[in-house]
Amino acid sequence: MEEIQSQSENYRSSSSSASSPASRVPSSNFFYLRKQGALRQPISFEDSPDWEDNTDVEVRVEEGGGDSINTATTPVSPSLSKLNSGSMPSPPLPEGAVVARKIAGATIVWKDLTVTIKGKRKYSDRVVKSSNGYALPGTMTVIMGPGKSGKSTLLRALAGRLDDSAKTYGEVFVNGAKSSLQYGSYGFVERKNTLIGSLTVREFLYYSALLQLPGFFYQKKSVVEDAIHAMSLGDYANKLIGGHCYMKGLPSGERRRVSIARELVMRPQALFIDEPLYHLDSVSALLMMVTLKKLASTGCTLIFTIYQSSTEVFGLYDRICLLSNGNTLFFGETLACLQHFSNAGFPCPIMQSPSDHFLRAINTDFDRIITMCKTWQDDNGDFSNVNMDTAVAIRTLEETYRSSADAAAVETMIHRLTEREGPSLKSKGKASSATRIAVLTWRSLLIMSREWKYYWLRLILCMLLALCVGTAFSGLGHSLSSVGTRVAAIFVFVSFASLLSIVGVPAQLKEVKVYACEDSNQHSGGIVFLMGQILASFPFLFLISISSSLVFYFLVGLRNDFSFMMYFVLNFFMCLLVNEGLVLVVATILQDIFWSISTLIFIHVVMMLSAGYFRIRSALPGPVWMYPVSYVAFHTYSIQGLLENEYDGTSFAVGQVRTITGYQALHNVYDVSPDVNSKWRNLLILSLMALGYRVLVFLLLHFCVKKNSYLFRFVCCRLRMNE
Ligand SMILES: Nc1ncnc2c1ncn2[C@@H]1O[C@H](COP(=O)(O)OP(=O)(O)OP(=O)(O)O)[C@@H](O)[C@H]1O
């Protein structure tokens, strides 16, 4: 807490303006007065960076075990020492201090940046309109505005992460050059945390480092520890992210910091965060911002979006880009923004949070509330400090900014930052695909073994089902009259066990979400994910199939031969593998637990109906039920194979002299083939189906999740509505 206090003390002295110095701010605004004797140098346009060819990276001194990221091999980037020194005062050198290298941040400049989004029909498809601004190493630049003002879109445009439906016009410069950010040089943290609850913070970051970075396993430990320290997660490092029955999971603030730490293992020069304070209380928000401020002080360029923040948190920002409906209402230092509002006729009242004031002035949603409360307001005095229609206020602020010295100063700064190219940010090495498959397999194995709802619950349910079906159909004997009942037993066991596999949907869905997040940051790939997933699932599926098959097999009294029994186990294993693929396909498309489960139950019921038990397959109506449903239903091949395995080479006595083959005994009850190799053909079809579903999942991941297709957006849209 001491640390937080000392950092929050600093914020009061942390902002000064290039064009609107603190002297212009009313002295009554006590939050924004510079502390006497503060070490911070005011930033001015004379401080614009000079790119140096010097290969040394500035060093910073940290007390033992300090929370900085050591960047011993970080390549040089522009020396912006003067600007860097502007964000936080460096502490004096304590004795025995550990020398840590600073990260060479990236200078990001955007000029006349416009983003249009296809399909966004309301009013205009221009989501960001001619935005100008810059972010410097060692500083925190915040994109602020009401909901749907284009904050996330601008952030994505700067990071080069817009999806295909968006078009960007204008220029983005990285270190003075018109180029995009390369792999490893930047990190992007999405608004929603996608973490793995069954791993500890340290494990989660370690596996993430293994997926992201090339090199030996032991080398990743130090980057993970650095990321843990940088995000002040030391106390939580060995805690399970999702908790367990006797322990609650990580609080939301710590979860958010873990999401950020994941991006830090790459030691990025720039970090983009969409809403770091999303759903955080005021204490967690302040702790988050102080931690980010500390991270920025190591040299990293931080850009993030914020909807609203407390006064204390607001004071920590270096620069603010205020958006409303895609228009830039202000870009510059935080103090200057207050001055800008004052100049436009909307001074921030004393004791009111600047961010609340800004949003109050430019958020059109307030108009509705004011109208709604008109009568009450008349009786209780005016609770609005902006006595103007919001649309007019926005126009006034926009025009005031356009003609202000702040806008001119930003243009001058942009010109200076882009007139010479600095060192380009090189792409960092990636872990090889083989390493990634091995890491994902191991990680999935760990998750599957720890999350009891993944496979353990299914194992218990399948065992119980085998016991129930086995006892219900026990003592059948091997007479001709038992054929129909035996077919029923096999059908019930296979169909119901496959149906029970649906309990794995939530876990599968989580895996898909983690994949989507990792893939968007290029930490994973479709094939890598599928290989890891399928390899890790093998031992669990085999365990389920062998244990439940054996119970069922012996209780019902199927053929007493090892090879026939092993075929039964193998067939049931393949059946579970196909079903796993089907579950993955549905979960990938629908991305929602309720809809995935409902759809899967419906698919299973339809497949059971067409599997040839309720009505023999050859008698099913041709269109739909026969073609294609009965051919697509994996139940058909599995049950057919199992029955052929059970009755192949058998014969039944009919009367005194006549005998019939197993095939003849069966073919009136279930559609089987007289061919002796048919059971193996059915097994092959099942394995091809398992493969086919994986290929389908790969295509869906590639074209729907990754490319953010219309289908995927439609589904996401519907889910957002559900939320
Ligand atoms: N992929 C997309 N397809 C269609 N419209 C989009 C897409 N992305 C953003 N938009 C639209 O662009 C506008 C700005 O969205 P954006 O997410 O950038 O705003 P925001 O300021 O971050 O808002 P919020 O904080 O509410 O998410 C919104 O009207 C949104 O509906």
TrEMBL record:
Organism in which the protein naturally occurs: Deinandra increscens subsp. villosa
Family: Belongs to the ABC transporter superfamily. ABCG family. Eye pigment precursor importer (TC 3.A.1.204) subfamily.
Keywords: ATP-binding, Membrane, Nucleotide-binding, Transmembrane, Transmembrane helix, Transport
Metal-binding among keywords: no
Protein name per its UniProtKB record: ABC transporter domain-containing protein
Start and end residues of each ABC transporter domain: 108-350
Chain intervals for the UniProt region annotation (Disordered): 1-25, 62-91
Localization annotation: Membrane
Compositionally biased region (Polar residues): 68-88
Single GO MF annotation: ATP hydrolysis activity
Lineage, highest ranks first: Eukaryota, Viridiplantae, Streptophyta, Embryophyta, Tracheophyta
Membrane-spanning residues: 455-476, 488-507, 527-556, 568-587, 593-612, 624-643, 683-705
Entry keyword Iron: no
Gene Ontology cellular component terms for the protein in this record: membrane
UniProt-listed InterPro entries: AAA+_ATPase, ABC2_TM, ABC_transporter-like_ATP-bd, P-loop_NTPase, Plant_ABCG
CDD domains reported in the protein's UniProt record: ABCG_EPDR
Topology versus the membrane: Multi-pass membrane protein
